[in-house]
Design brief:
Layout lengths: L13 E6 L10 E4 L2 E8 L2 E5 L2 E5 L3 E5 L5 E6 L5 E7 L1 H7 L20 E3 L2 H8 L12 H22 L14 H12 L7 H7 L4 H12 L3 H20 L14 H12 L3 H9 L6 E4 L4
Antiparallel strand pairs: 1-8, 2-10, 3-6, 3-8, 4-5, 4-7, 6-9
Helix pairs in contact: 5-6
Protein name: AraC family transcriptional regulator
Keywords: DNA-binding, Transcription, Transcription regulation
InterPro entries: AraC-bd, Homeodomain-like_sf, HTH-like, HTH_AraC, RmlC-like_jellyroll
Length: 294
């Protein structure tokens, strides 16, 4: 299934994109979406941002991106950059999984899984992806055959994730500014606490001005906007469990129910109630840009 652009997920199950377009430096947007993404580098190299860290992409690199994680390609570092994306609906992936074989496991960075960033031989990766790059048709059985190719690929990726001996974590990123890594880590670990600029700066022994200025320079995102974004993404996880907006807003760090509703509607173009309704109908497949560096 080959496409020339990867802007959104249209199919309600999964899609594959094979891309060779040039990535212009600082011309991509921070974004997140409600489905799983697997980013595979086949040829060339680039720098990839994922939720606070920048990592090098080389042939054979696999980035496993869970739903609602901020990411983007920062820039390519070679003249030619070939990659394949896979987008997978969470409900569909859960339905393919069994009690013995959890196909979502590779997207978790804790428990039995070492990392969300894998590195294998580039030729091996190309062989794994080749069946998924074949054009599909409407002939009898081709949809199930293609699904079987996807399952085989996911089993291989999960096996590689379990066997990875040198996992990459946030501390292994390319960022030279450890203060920003510390700030992002602090935010992620204290979403329900006071995350004012002054509070976080004090915890990191920085001045508020320095933290604000450096955070925007390094990430392309304003400090407060990042905090709100992370809390809103967390709110969707809590909503799925509680089914109640009033039980959610404080649990994800908002002090005001009204403020939470306003931010949620502005961010997702849905009220919490509408979000839950679309989730129930299995229609919530969205791709959202997050204004940052352009």
């Amino acid at each position: 299934m080959e496409k020339q652009s990867a802007d959104t997920m249209i199919n309600d199950r999964f899609e594959a994109f094979h891309i060779k377009d040039i990535v212009e430096e600082n011309n991509t947007l921070y974004h997140y979406h409600s489905f799983y993404e697997i980013h595979c580098t086949l040829k060339g190299s680039a720098v990839f941002f994922i939720d606070g860290g920048e990592f090098p992409l080389e042939p054979g690199t696999i980035i496993l991106i869970p739903p609602n994680v901020l990411h983007r390609i920062v820039h390519q570092t070679s003249d030619f950059f070939e990659r394949t994306y896979l987008y997978i609906n969470p409900s569909y992936l859960a339905a393919l999984s069994t009690t013995q074989t959890d196909l979502t496991a590779c997207f978790r960075s804790n428990g039995g899984i070492n990392s969300r960033i894998l590195s294998i031989d580039a030729d091996q990766l190309d062989q794994l992806l080749r069946p998924l790059r074949k054009k599909t048709d409407s002939n009898y059985g081709t949809d199930l055959l293609y699904q079987n190719h996807l399952i085989a690929f996911l089993i291989s990726i999960n096996t590689i994730a379990y066997q990875e001996k040198e996992p990459l974590f946030l501390s292994d990123s390319l960022y030279k500014n450890k203060d920003i890594l510390a700030a992002i880590t602090y935010i992620n670990q204290h979403l329900t606490a006071d995350l004012s600029l002054e509070t976080v700066a004090k915890a990191l022994f920085m001045s508020p001005y320095s933290l604000s200025r450096t955070f925007k320079k390094e990430t392309g995102v304003a400090f407060h906007a990042y905090v709100v974004k992370k809390r809103l993404l967390k709110s969707k996880e809590i909503l799925r469990k509680t089914r109640s907006a009033t039980a959610t807003f404080e649990a994800c760090g908002f002090n005001s129910y009204t403020h939470f509703l306003r931010c949620f509607k502005q961010e997702f173009q849905l009220t919490p109630k509408e979000f839950l309704q679309e989730e129930a109908q299995n229609q919530f497949v969205r791709f959202t840009h997050f204004a940052g560096k352009k």
